[in-house]
Backbone:
């Protein structure tokens, strides 16, 4: 099967259109930058506190916001992270406070108490949905429902209660939040322990499943490190390309790279998505990937220039792009398939990362044809004219 | 099939079997990152200035004691800053005598003066400031001790495979990673608590208010004493307000002199901390208690009076500390006492915790995305390249097996971006095959024979494959160098994957074609 047969498209002739598209994308990025006042930095770079809360029922976000404000958090960001029946996750983020080092995790935790069930019997003092294994194990040791002799068999008792605590809470962690004892009853926990658990614990309405606090120093360090990584990676790639090809190829490839990164970052600004550490990793991968496409075309140009010396430069470049077109479309296609799959099914934690890859694959493919090759053509044309 | 190809096939089978063996079952063999497994990641900063200030305070006290022994008593002693103090004397000769004493006791291990001395007259003053090099030593020692204390506490806490590292050779930051740990607030408290235990003699009190104690002392606190608050207590459900004690500043015995601390019970069967003192301190403590029977002894933990029982009899090396502990608190506190005190307070610069259910959900979604992506690519390759597609799919499968095997044997960590990297790799690794296949098709179109088309396809595609993969490797190398945690995991996965994909495309795929053409020479399904 062939999607793309022998083509003979005059890509270089369309470089004006390409330049217009690129210019529009770049201007759009700049406009969005100005409009949004820069990128929306994620917690890695901006610092602050962030928690991901799993709720038993869809929470009233307005109520949550009001309680957070009442706790003294001035400007909380609340975002529905996952909204599926049975899995309601909300992300709460707060900026760094003026004092700098102190996070606001404590305030967020107290605000969340609104979502605890109102009626809880007196004996049920602990929330099964948030309790940790250590606490369950140590409470069990204290209460000792299995009636171990805790003077002689303290180690055995401890080991047994730790095992049981793990068993009970693993049943919880399978789901995240429980609202009935079915899952715990399904395990082979001793009935004496089970009845103690049922008498002691209640089901809270939420659980914090992830928390982040990034202080100002760490945020600043990460920004600096990231800038270094981008700079050295670009320099390293430039060095490699210049070593493998002549300098005109190298220059053209780097123009395409900068073009790609610019538009990819711009896309984050336009989509108003969070720019965080994994996104940078995605960008660096894009740089490598975009170069990959460019290199394949350049490799072919070099080959054709050597085998068909009489052919005019423009024709030779067009021929090379056409010859590699099928390959370019195919590999971009397969990569696009997996990236789309990651974007749609990979979950909210890496959604921004997948978005960066998605934009990168598209822009990288486009730029190897409509940016890198035309720039090489213009450079070479001038060099040939000078020689004459 | 030629003998040579048979060997190659054998080699490939052995490699895949070995990689499968290494990575099976993946849930046990592959090292999961904190973001997938759940756990706690902390970066903390040791406030080293406190340790320096503490050293200066101790040195000042030592110097004062020594001066008293020599009969050289300053009229006034002031702590000027965190790193210096001044003493004023009535006469210049006294000041000069003090300078000689200072030169005697403040000599560092390298033989240099650890304090810089400056003299001034009118009034005769001796100013001592800690030498800059000594300050650095003191800071470094504080970080080392904090690192050791934290390591002890985590060891005792019982977390498997913790990471506890100083960041940078001379840095004040410590990285702590605890896979599987669940309760970030408890862990943070456990690490943050200084756990400084002191036994100090009560001079007056307890009193309801601070002012009452000051008034009882005649408006001015006696030299060498200070007021310390008690911990809030509840007895039979009734809250007892905080009490105030007037204590000697210099403790009888300190926590550093503990030989052991453990979970114990008081006479009511409530959780308590049992302790044993080191032999020399035990003797000192025994002598002190036997001569002070009937007086109150304050047990001070982190600058709060835990309890202040009266001394009933001589206490030698063993005792218990009770005082409203829950079992978990008593356990944690004895753990902290056992593992030593922190030389300075610590601040958390970064705190990232992932609960087990979030990690599990991430794995589930990552695997789902991988399966969907991979199925689509496989179907596409089979339809598009038919027979040769099988070849590419085999190479892809082998590629994943090798990546898992190498990750398992290198103990590399798989993170969520790492899974994304694997998924990306599925798309990218067919790239090499596509390059080769397209080239073979071109050669076939030129009317070449099957065998020479295959040879030409591989040899002409080689330089493009090499360039393309090396560029991605360069980018991955910088990611690894500068990245942290999850991002590093991504770089590792990508790097291993790219190397493996070159192997499978150039070696495995080639062999498959060779085997194909050795049986059916005339046609090629591509």
Residues:
């Amino acid at each position: 099967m062939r999607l793309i047969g022998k083509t003979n498209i005059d890509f270089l002739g369309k470089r004006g259109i390409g330049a217009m598209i690129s210019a529009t994308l770049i201007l759009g990025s700049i406009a969005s930058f100005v409009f949004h006042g820069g990128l929306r930095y994620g917690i890695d770079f901006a610092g602050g506190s962030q928690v991901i809360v799993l709720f038993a029922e869809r929470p009233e976000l307005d109520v949550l916001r009001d309680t957070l404000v009442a706790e003294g958090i001035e400007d909380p960001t609340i975002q529905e992270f996952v909204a599926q029946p049975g899995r309601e996750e909300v992300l709460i983020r707060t900026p760094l406070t003026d004092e700098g080092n102190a996070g606001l995790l404590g305030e967020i935790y107290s605000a969340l108490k609104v979502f605890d069930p109102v009626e809880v019997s007196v004996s049920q003092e602990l929330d099964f949905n948030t309790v940790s294994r250590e606490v369950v194990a140590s409470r069990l040791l204290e209460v000792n429902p299995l009636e171990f002799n805790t003077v002689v068999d303290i180690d055995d008792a401890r080991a047994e209660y730790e095992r049981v605590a793990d068993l009970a809470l693993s049943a919880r962690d399978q789901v995240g939040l429980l609202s009935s004892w079915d899952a715990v009853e399904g395990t082979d926990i001793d009935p004496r322990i089970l009845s103690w658990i049922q008498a002691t614990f209640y089901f809270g309405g939420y659980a914090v499943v992830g928390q982040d606090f990034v202080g100002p120093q760490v945020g600043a360090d990460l920004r600096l490190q990231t800038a270094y990584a981008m700079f050295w990676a670009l320099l390293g790639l430039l060095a490699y390309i210049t070593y493998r090809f002549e300098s005109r190829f190298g220059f053209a490839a780097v123009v395409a790279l900068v073009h790609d990164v610019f538009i990819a970052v711009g896309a984050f600004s336009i989509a108003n998505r969070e720019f965080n550490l994994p996104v940078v990793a995605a960008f660096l991968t894009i740089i490598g990937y975009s170069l990959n496409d460019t290199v394949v075309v350049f490799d072919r140009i070099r080959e054709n220039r050597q085998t068909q010396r009489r052919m005019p430069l423009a024709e030779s470049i067009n021929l090379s792009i056409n010859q590699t077109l099928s390959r370019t479309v195919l590999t971009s296609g397969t990569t696009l398939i997996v990236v789309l799959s990651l974007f749609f099914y990979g979950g909210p934690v890496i959604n921004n990362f997948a978005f960066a890859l998605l934009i990168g694959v598209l822009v990288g493919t486009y730029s190897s044809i409509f940016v890198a090759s035309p720039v090489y053509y213009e450079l070479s044309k001038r060099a040939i004219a000078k020689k004459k | 099939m030629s003998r040579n190809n048979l060997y190659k096939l054998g080699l490939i089978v052995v490699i895949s079997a070995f990689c499968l063996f290494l990575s099976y079952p993946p849930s046990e063999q592959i090292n999961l990152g904190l973001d997938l497994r759940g756990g706690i990641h902390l970066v903390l900063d040791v406030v080293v200035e406190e340790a320096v200030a503490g050293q200066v305070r101790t040195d000042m006290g030592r110097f004062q004691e020594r001066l008293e022994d020599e009969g050289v008593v300053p009229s006034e002693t002031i702590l000027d800053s965190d790193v210096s103090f001044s003493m004023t004397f009535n006469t210049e000769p006294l000041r000069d005598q003090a300078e000689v004493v200072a030169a005697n006791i403040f000599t560092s291990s390298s033989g240099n003066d650890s304090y810089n001395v400056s003299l001034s007259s009118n009034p005769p003053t001796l100013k001592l400031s800690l030498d800059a090099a000594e300050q650095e030593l003191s800071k470094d020692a504080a970080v080392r001790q904090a690192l050791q204390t934290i390591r002890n506490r985590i060891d005792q806490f019982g977390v498997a495979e913790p990471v506890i590292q100083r960041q940078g050779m001379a840095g004040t930051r410590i990285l702590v990673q605890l896979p599987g740990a669940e309760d970030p607030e408890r862990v943070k408290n456990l690490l943050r608590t200084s756990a400084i235990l002191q036994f100090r003699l009560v001079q007056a009190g307890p009193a309801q208010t601070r002012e009452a104690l000051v008034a009882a002392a005649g408006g001015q606190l006696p030299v060498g004493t200070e007021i310390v608050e008690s911990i809030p207590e509840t007895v039979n459900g009734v809250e007892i307000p905080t009490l105030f004690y007037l204590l000697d500043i210099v403790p009888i015995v300190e926590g550093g002199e503990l030989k052991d601390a453990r979970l114990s019970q008081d006479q009511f069967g409530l959780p308590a901390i049992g302790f044993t003192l080191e032999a020399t301190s035990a003797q000192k403590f025994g002598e002190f208690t036997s001569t002070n029977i009937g007086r109150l002894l304050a047990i001070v933990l982190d600058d709060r009076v835990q309890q202040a029982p009266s001394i009933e009899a001589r206490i030698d090396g063993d005792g218990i500390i009770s005082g409203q502990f829950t079992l978990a608190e008593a356990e944690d506190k004895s753990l902290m006492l056992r593992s030593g005190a922190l030389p300075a307070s610590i601040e958390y610069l970064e705190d990232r915790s992932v609960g087990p259910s979030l990690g599990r959900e991430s794995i589930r979604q990552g695997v789902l995305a991988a399966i969907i992506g991979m199925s689509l690519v496989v179907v596409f390759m089979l339809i598009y390249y038919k027979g040769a597609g099988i070849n590419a799919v085999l190479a892809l499968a082998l590629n994943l097996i090798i990546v898992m095997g190498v990750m398992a044997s290198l103990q590399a960590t798989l993170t969520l971006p790492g899974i994304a990297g694997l998924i990306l790799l599925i798309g990218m690794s067919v790239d090499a095959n596509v390059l080769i296949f397209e080239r073979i098709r071109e050669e076939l179109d030129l009317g070449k024979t099957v065998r020479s088309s295959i040879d030409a396809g591989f040899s002409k595609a080689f330089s493009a494959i090499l360039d393309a993969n090396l560029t991605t490797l360069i980018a991955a190398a910088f990611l690894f160098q500068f990245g942290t945690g999850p991002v590093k995991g991504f770089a590792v996965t990508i790097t291993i994957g790219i190397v493996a994909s070159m192997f499978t495309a150039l070696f495995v795929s080639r062999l498959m074609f060779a085997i194909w053409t050795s049986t059916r020479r005339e046609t090629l399904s591509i």
User: Anything to note?
Assistant: The CA atoms of residues 225 and 248 of chain B lie 4 Å apart. Chain B has 14 helices and 21 strands. Residues 49-132 of chain B form a domain with the Alpha-Beta Plaits fold (CATH 3.30.70). The two ends of chain B are 21 Å apart (CA to CA).
